[in-house]
């Protein structure tokens, strides 16, 4: 009854239970955080804009991205993955989301940033629909916890438009 | 002889009824594990509700040996979500992030492009030859929860089968010989 094996077993079971409960509480405590992030994006220049030989439109642009995501961080946050996507609607597609830039924020100190960049991933349409196309810039973030549930949300910035002609 | 002798004696001294009880309790453990697994499959709607991360392509978010909980709902797939997908001709599913989505107006079908956070380029090189996009049927689920390190148990057991057999043998012996 009181052998070494039983005591070791009881101790291990208890330790794992406590650990699991603590992980669950840590994850649950994230729900009390109500973040208020802000973001601004400017398209400074259309570097080039062309119709590729296979018929798809492609555009390259230079942007200023600034954001303050500090309020997303809690004690259970390992990192925040942030990315900027161009979102638009075409005749064929009810939704197109094209990621233009992304980054990993490892700590709260780096969560307020300003970056001047060209698009990191190619902005290619499915087809030739980008001339004079209105699109939204959406800053998405994905909070990766140390343990537990993951959170994601976004800020939509409207009023962007691509030029009328290829250049 | 000591310990081994004692164990053999305890096996010998058992009554049939006791043996029967222990066989049932062993069966209960196995079936309840199965019930939990199948129940999770029903709740999450995913073929494999829990996956172990095997590669470092999503570091530093997910490391090798971390566990992901999957959920498969009817909701459409959107950029930024971490999905688990199967590529034709590859056995092991891949966990990567969606970076492009094109959703068809008429049929609602989606074309999806993925990329590992830690990889330099997108996943077109990993897809089957000539495949440009993932469709809905490739995707097994999206990651909703995260538990670090626990997956190492399964990684060690698949890579070192000997340890697996020793562990199963020892546990089985424990269940059979325990008197309570």
Automatic annotation (TrEMBL), chain A:
It is a single-pass type II membrane protein. Belongs to the SPCS3 family. One of its GO terms (cellular component) is signal peptidase complex. The keyword Transmembrane helix applies. This is Signal peptidase complex subunit 3. Essential component of the signal peptidase complex (SPC) which catalyzes the cleavage of N-terminal signal sequences from nascent proteins as they are translocated into the lumen of the endoplasmic reticulum. Essential for the SPC catalytic activity, possibly by stabilizing and positioning the active center of the complex close to the lumenal surface. InterPro entries: SPC3. The keyword Lipoprotein does not apply. Keywords: Endoplasmic reticulum, Membrane, Signal, Signal-anchor, Transmembrane, Transmembrane helix. Transmembrane segments: none annotated. It is found in: Endoplasmic reticulum membrane. Residues 1-26 form the signal peptide. Its main location: endoplasmic reticulum. GO terms for biological process: protein targeting to ER; signal peptide processing.
TrEMBL record, chain B:
Its EC number is 3.4.21.89. GO terms for molecular function: serine-type endopeptidase activity; signal peptidase activity. Pfam families: Peptidase_S24 (PF00717). It is an enzyme of class 3 (hydrolase). It is a single-pass type II membrane protein. It is found in: Endoplasmic reticulum membrane. GO terms for biological process: signal peptide processing. Keywords: Hydrolase, Membrane, Protease, Signal-anchor, Transmembrane, Transmembrane helix. InterPro entries: LexA/Signal_pep-like_sf (IPR036286), Peptidase_S24_S26A/B/C (IPR015927), Peptidase_S26 (IPR019533), Peptidase_S26B (IPR001733). One of its GO terms (cellular component) is signal peptidase complex. It catalyses: Cleavage of hydrophobic, N-terminal signal or leader sequences from secreted and periplasmic proteins. This is Signal peptidase complex catalytic subunit SEC11. PANTHER family: SIGNAL PEPTIDASE COMPLEX CATALYTIC SUBUNIT SEC11. Gene3D superfamilies: Umud Fragment, subunit A (2.10.109.10). Belongs to the peptidase S26B family. Catalytic component of the signal peptidase complex (SPC) which catalyzes the cleavage of N-terminal signal sequences from nascent proteins as they are translocated into the lumen of the endoplasmic reticulum. Specifically cleaves N-terminal signal peptides that contain a hydrophobic alpha-helix (h-region) shorter than 18-20 amino acids.
């Amino acid at each position: 009854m009181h052998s070494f094996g039983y005591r070791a077993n009881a101790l291990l079971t208890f330790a794992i239970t406590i650990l699991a409960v603590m992980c669950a509480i840590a994850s649950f405590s994230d729900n009390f955080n109500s973040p208020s992030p802000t973001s601004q994006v400017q398209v400074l220049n259309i570097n080039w804009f062309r119709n590729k030989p296979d018929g798809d439109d492609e555009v390259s642009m230079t942007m200023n991205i600034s954001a303050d995501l500090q309020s997303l961080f809690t004690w259970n946050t390992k990192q925040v993955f942030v990315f900027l996507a161009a979102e638009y609607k075409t005749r064929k597609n009810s939704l197109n989301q094209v990621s233009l830039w992304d980054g990993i924020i490892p700590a709260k100190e780096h969560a307020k940033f300003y970056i001047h960049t060209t698009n990191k991933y190619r902005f290619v349409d499915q087809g030739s629909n980008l001339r004079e196309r209105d699109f939204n810039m959406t800053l998405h973030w994905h909070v990766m916890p140390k343990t537990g549930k993951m959170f994601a949300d976004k800020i939509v910035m409207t009023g962007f438009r691509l030029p009328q002609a290829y250049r | 002889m000591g310990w081994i002798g004692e164990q053999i004696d305890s096996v010998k001294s058992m009554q049939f009824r006791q043996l029967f009880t222990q066989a049932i309790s062993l069966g209960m453990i196995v079936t309840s594990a199965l019930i939990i697994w199948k129940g999770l499959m029903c709740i999450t709607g995913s073929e494999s509700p829990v996956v172990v991360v095997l590669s470092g392509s999503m570091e530093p978010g997910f490391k090798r040996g971390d566990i992901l909980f999957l959920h498969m709902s009817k909701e459409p797939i959107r950029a930024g979500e971490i999905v688990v997908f199967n590529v034709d001709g590859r056995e092991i599913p891949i966990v990567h992030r969606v970076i492009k989505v094109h959703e068809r107006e008429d049929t609602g079908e989606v074309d999806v492009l993925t990329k590992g956070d830690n990889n330099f380029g997108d996943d077109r090189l990993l897809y089957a030859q000539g495949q440009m996009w993932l469709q809905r049927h490739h995707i097994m689920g999206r990651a909703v929860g995260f538990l670090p390190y626990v997956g190492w148990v399964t990684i060690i057991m698949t890579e070192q089968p000997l340890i697996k057999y020793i562990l199963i043998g020892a546990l089985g012996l424990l269940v059979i010989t325990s008197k309570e």
